[in-house]
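Service request form, structural biology core

Requester: graduate student, group of Dr. S.
Request type: structure prediction, single chain
Budget code: on file
Notes: please return the result as structure tokens.

Sequence provided:
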Amino acid sequence: MRDAIVFTGLSWETFNVPERISIALASLGCTVLHCEPPVSMFRSEPQVMRDVANGIHSLRLRFISSRFDYLPGAPLAQAHMIRKQIECAARQLQLREPIFLYMPLGRLFPLCGLMKRDHFIVHTCIDEPIEPDYERRYVEVSDRTLVIPRSTYHKFRAKFGSKVEIIRQSVDFQGLTNGAGTDMREPGALSAIPRPRLAYLGPPSTRLNIPVLQSLLRSHPGWHFVSVGPNGAVQLPNAHALPWMPATAMGDYIRNVEIGFMPYNCHNELNRHCVPLKLFDCFAFGIPVVSTPLIHLWEYKDLIYFGDTAEELARAVEQALEEPHDSPKRAARIAIARMHSLENLASELRACLPLDVEEGAAVSPRSVGRRGETNPLPVSVVIPTYRRPGPLTDCLRSLVPGSQRPHEIIVVGREGDTPTREALARAQEFCAGKTALRAAWVTEPGHIPPVKKGLELASDEIVAFVDDDVTVTPEWLGHLCAPFDDPSVGVVGGRVLTASSKMPRLRGKPGCISWYGKHWGNLTSLEGDSPVDVEAAMECNWAWRRQLLASLKFDPVLNADDGSMYGLDLCLQATRKGYRVLYQPRAAVHHHVAPRAPDLDRSDRTKRDFSYSRNYTYIMLKHLRWWQRPFFLGWWFLIGERGSWGLGSVLADALTGRLPLLRDVWSALAGKVQGIHLAASGARACDSRGFGNEPEVVAVVRDLR
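Core staff response, request fulfilled:
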């Protein structure tokens, strides 16, 4: 039996959903490490781990400060600190292959990625999500997601499939009813409050419809509303706040109130879809419940008294007070509470979590999939191509015998490319039985349309892209996709080796961008055995999370000419969404000389300089902050770089005897000016034309000649 680490934003004493899941897991024989929310090391002393229940040990985590998280890189640093504490406690308890269960982590989200490296991670969704990025941050990266609200379960199941499971909201039926005992005397805190008592068994919060509650209590001063916590819901004589009580004492309070009262604010989507724990706590004693009509309570319409307005709730309270003590509804409520017991929750967890480990087996938590698979993630490989049947065939032949084969290969060509069709027909022979080879066709010119088409057709979570003029190394795909075990990684680029060209000299920070906008592009000069963080990767050899790439904008402005630098734009968009861009030097491909379309000839230096300068200027002005743009333009025009010259780079080349042609310098300058124009105008004209070679580009280059 595997053990469990439960990371919750609550203390054990709140006895909320994570705590009840912990008890259910412990009842199955798991040792549970319950991690309470971290507190600042400046406000607390280190605390020893404490035993809170049979088989459950609670750990109070510590970090620097929640305010520290607002600094760049601080959430990841604090996540490393917390992970170290968790792993230390896990070793102390000698946990066996523990799974990691987590609730929403807020700014500590990087902890999720760190734990996924070594653990099977399970997200628990207890409410309808309201965070705009919830699915990506929690559901997508999880190995399994447990959902309580049925409406949310069906929403996630439609998108993420079998990795999403539904579990019931639970009640500690035995502990609650046995804890109440046989002594019918009222708890001292309740004895001073007149009857009838309408109890909300929790602290009043944004969940309650305060105006409706206030109107109801003012209209019925003889009814007394009881909540728990230091602050009352409303300032009225018949509204009372009880001190916080332990879970073991809750039964005595429930048994000594007339009604469980839940006037939730249904205008709030979070509330409207919630499944209140309080409902089943009250049902355990059979007492009537009055509530606003939450969606997941409709199935109990014969056992709950509903109302939307203060007047409707008042009538519901009157009906609940008139309910006989021997009403069959009370027995029905108790029967439902038994169905939602922790014992039944444990059975559900047993069925939907990989808790079994064979004796003596060294199982990696990351290797346990939805059905115990040990296979790597399936990968779709997309190859954009145009009239290069020979190199394309060589590329396909290199993909098939690799140590990790792609699940499918999607070749996207342009309509009318008969040689490519014939090459693909022949390639089916050596791909048959090894991988699926699919073909698709686009009508738009440019490099981006086939990339988008391939992405649309890809069926796997990871999509790799290679050019048709490369051949891959045998270990290429495995190295390229290995970093995706970390959910914070959005894109991984590999190394491109060109036999006929000299390896570029290592300068600056390859793959990174300086604060003033200089992009150090000599990425292939980086060697090594492990991935490194960069800000951009090469489009001819990279892999993406499919859902991430599909959420980004393929800017039609960048589809002009050879699509120069469009990958930089995508990487910067991914970084803005919080994902990491990695360069994996071991994921190498060999680039070969191959024929190109006449209008994309690399020897046409004038047109290539214009396209590069135009797109790079546009991208930098699009992504840099307002205060960085003047520094970028100053460097770009006064200094520049070889291939997109500024005054300084022209003088430097002149001094070394490599004075560039005037038309090339002028082409680069014209490209920069047009890039500024496009960025300033928001590229409205280009957006309205959509994909295709830009008439402005062709016209400007023709004038330069």
